[in-house]
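anyone else get weird line breaks when pasting these?? whatever heres mine. first is seq + tokens for prot A
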Amino acid sequence: MNIPHALLQRYKVLFVNRLYKNYYTALGTIKKSFSFIILFIFPFQIIYLCVVTRLHLTVACMKRWGLRASFLSADTNADAGQNT
């Protein structure tokens, strides 16, 4: 049985189109998931890094200059020199 060339060509085009469509659909899903990661998780990661870096620098400065955590002490007037 001999299959006509045009019919074979038509099936080949349909198969390739469906293959590309599935590929681009999967690619779109991957892009959406990456955009979700960038939009929702990445800012929280930046905030976390900023907080940790700030705490680390604060502790490093306190150790370097021998400062005490005056903001943790209850006697803030004595630190400000306003005790009477």
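and prot B, same format (seq, then tokens)
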Amino acid sequence: MATYTLNCQHNRGAQALEGSFFQRNGYTRSPVVVQCYVTLRCGLSCAHCLAPPGEKTALDMPLNLFDRLCGESATLGVGEMLLTGGEPLQRQDLEELIGSLRKYDLAWTLNTAACPDPEQQQAIRQYPPTYVAVSIDGPASVHDEFRGHTGAFEQALSAIRFFSGLPGVTVCAGTTVTTKNQRHLNETLSLVKNSGAHKWGIHLLIPEGRAALRKDLFLSDRQMRQLLRAIVLHRKSFPVTLCDEMGYAGEWESLVRDETFFCAAGRAMCAVLPDGSIMPCSTTNPRYCEGNLTVSRLDDIWTNGFIGLRNQNRTDKCARCADWAVCGGACWLQRIHGTQCFKHLWKLSTAVKSAAGLAVYMGSVTYAAADPGLSDSRSDVSSTPMITAQAGQRSDIRTASLR
């Protein structure tokens, strides 16, 4: 199970576009995005899936419930309906799902790791998404092993080729960086550039679902610093962004993102599980359910739910932190597991800070030509052979949050 969204940090929808209402109430009048888990079924077996092992309940959202969700979302003024899962393309009735989206004139987006079959492609062409996120976790052997299925890599590439060929569709490749694929990031970027994808989203693991059982996949602090340096470097040649799992990135923030981090869970977005349960974000844990569409209307749940998130109640270590004003408690999904704080990584090293300053204020920056710490790099950026890249090439990247 993965989660991407067109709006990623949701800054435009949550703060810039609705500033006064948001500032008064702590949430947007309508969700910027509704993540709809149209199914929990999937043909892959990913080590980091948010769905717990053996998840069996309510695998598919009934068509009548989906149609109702679309109608209520349109009335409420939802900006984006994200179809996710599971694997949404497992739905053989995808054409009918798209029909409901079209009936209510809802803009929709898609998370997938597969290529649509010919019938699905025909339906998609009739009412295409505005944005599609496709998982690419590394070269073929790395990707297939991580996804637990031979041929998954070719499926992903085929998906990118298909969707990037549709007019008006932005395609983002999403990579969840783990200890198994970090050293392949340079090669992965090359694959992404040549795939037809327009953007590249970099994601971190969250200890939810299956990933909670794989502590060996989580990056160390040293590997995290290497990853941040890599993102800074790669943004000079391609639209790359660090997605939401790290939360606020301190001095790295403007170097690894185009918009300042904002956690939208329950404040500018919500998620709907196949049984109609409404969640703040990407979890199947019933503890965090705010209501159910089979009992209440979406607008009632949105207006009256998520009180704790909207009041910004501080808990645990956040309650004593002086940096709450800039961090805001980081990623909600990380926070419920106690893994939200990356404050110890916020500071730039002297070498990176100097290069960053040149990039921002002088229009050019010197970066390491070698792989930026994706292998066993004990040196800082300044100790390796250097190249010069042009600054001022920030693109409007609004990728997603991969889980």
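btw re prot B: The longest strand covers residues 170-176. Confidence is low (pLDDT under 50) at residues 7-17, 360-403.
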